[in-house]
């Protein structure tokens, strides 16, 4: 069973972490001119691209392996070592392409060559830091140490906020300094996560990769790469069309509203921290459990949409006077968060169970939307771009439902609604 006491503790720590991160982000929106913040938006988008392309597939493989191996510490350690090797393999394929795309977007947005080189260098360092620590938290989630991870993230977020305020006070705040604080937020997690994961696995040194696990994870990761490419293409197309059709202010608005959306991160983080481990052993009452997960993760976005509809000024005040007339884009952003939350929560819980054979459906559906969306939407404003981004949730939802049906046919769970009379495996989520 899921412990709501542990979830509430996790969410509270998450509010501290994301509250500090949101304040830092909102201060950057206020203190960096819109044209400069547009460059920061591009860079932060590419940080998400790097994380998605290099981590998603290996993380799926690791979650599937841990679902079978946990609580066997030796097998879990070998699963982690195998996932790290797979992530290196995937990174060698995608990182050069991502950095070239980043350079092209930054040049199109008007940056100069010295600043371009510094931004690319910082993004490479962020990838290197995330490569070291980006998979360790998944082991800690299965070891029921999610609260400890969130507490660490809280202290790091507060530290980053102090750095942002200090840079402003010293008159040194810039796009480069802002990105360096992002690097700090990733790198500062490594020592503690490394120590805690070794404690959870009862090891003092890393395990050797398991060839059989590597083969299985490689298959999952390679199958996931096209899906991840579509995922990051969504963000890249948004940036491209706004830069090309809308200009730097609309691009800055798109990024600024994302700072408000960041307030919901503690709830979306529940998916990986609690819902994925909790669903790992579920064999009955599948639909009620999924509806619970979706409701918990999306309720804050519904609240945000209500505020954006009735009193948008209370939210827009956070991002400054220059964005005070962006009530409609804010409301569209909130609706997008609801749609993406439903689809992504369902997909994450199902796919991290190892049920992602129909994930390829996102490719033709998403590809069709890439073709149709720019023809039916203007894509010259933040609002129309959020609507475009929202359209991709259809493919995610369809593929997750298809995998849920396919898993039923394979006999991987016994009941959609009723409780099975046979004993079920105890969930790992607490």
Automatic annotation (TrEMBL):
Alphabetical keyword list: Cell membrane, Membrane, Transmembrane, Transmembrane helix
Residue stretches spanning the membrane: 7-31, 88-107, 113-131, 225-243, 263-280, 292-311, 327-347, 359-379, 385-406
Main location: membrane
Any GO CC annotation of this UniProt entry: plasma membrane
Subcellular compartments: Cell membrane
InterPro entries linked to this entry: Poly_Biosynth_Transport
Hydrolase listed as a keyword: no
Membrane topology: Multi-pass membrane protein
Record-given protein name: Oligosaccharide flippase family protein
């Amino acid at each position: 069973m899921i412990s709501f006491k542990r979830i509430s503790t996790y969410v509270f720590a998450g509010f501290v972490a994301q509250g500090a991160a949101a304040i830092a982000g909102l201060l950057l929106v206020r203190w960096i001119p819109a044209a400069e913040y547009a460059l920061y938006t591009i860079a932060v988008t590419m940080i998400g691209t790097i994380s998605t392309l290099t981590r998603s597939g290996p993380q799926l493989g690791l979650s599937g392996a841990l679902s079978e191996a946990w609580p066997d510490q030796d097998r879990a350690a070998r699963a982690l070592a195998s996932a790290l090797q797979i992530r290196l393999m995937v990174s060698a394929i995608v990182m050069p392409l991502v950095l070239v795309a980043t350079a092209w977007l930054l040049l199109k947005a008007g940056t100069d060559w010295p600043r371009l080189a510094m931004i690319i260098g910082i993004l490479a360092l962020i990838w290197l830091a995330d490569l070291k620590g980006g998979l360790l938290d998944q082991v800690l989630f299965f070891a029921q140490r999610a609260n400890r991870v969130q507490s660490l993230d809280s202290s790091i977020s507060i530290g980053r906020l102090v750095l942002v305020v200090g840079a402003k006070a010293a008159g040194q705040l810039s796009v480069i300094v802002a990105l360096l604080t992002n690097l700090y937020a990733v790198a500062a997690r490594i020592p503690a996560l490394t120590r805690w994961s070794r404690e959870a696995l009862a090891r003092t040194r890393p395990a050797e990769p398991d060839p059989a696990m590597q083969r299985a994870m490689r298959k999952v990761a390679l199958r996931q790469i096209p899906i991840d490419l579509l995922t990051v293409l969504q963000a890249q197309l948004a940036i491209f069309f706004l830069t090309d059709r809308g200009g730097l202010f609309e691009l800055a608005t798109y990024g600024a509203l994302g700072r408000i959306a960041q307030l919901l991160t503690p709830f979306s983080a529940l998916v990986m921290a609690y819902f994925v481990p909790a669903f790992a052993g579920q064999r009955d009452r599948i639909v009620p459990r999924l509806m619970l997960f979706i409701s918990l993760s999306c309720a804050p976005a519904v609240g945000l949409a209500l505020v954006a509809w009735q009193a948008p000024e209370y939210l827009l005040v956070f991002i400054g006077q220059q964005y005070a007339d962006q009530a409609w884009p804010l409301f569209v952003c909130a609706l997008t968060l609801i749609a993406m939350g439903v689809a992504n929560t369902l997909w994450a819980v199902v796919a991290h169970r190892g049920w992602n054979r129909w994930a390829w459906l996102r490719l033709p559906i998403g590809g069709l939307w890439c073709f149709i969306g720019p023809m039916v939407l203007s894509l010259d404003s933040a609002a129309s771009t959020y609507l475009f981004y929202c359209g991709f949730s259809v493919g995610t939802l369809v593929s997750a439902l298809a995998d849920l049906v396919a898993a039923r046919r394979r006999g991987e769970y016994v009941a959609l609604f009723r409780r099975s009379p046979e004993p079920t495996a105890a969930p790992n989520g607490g």
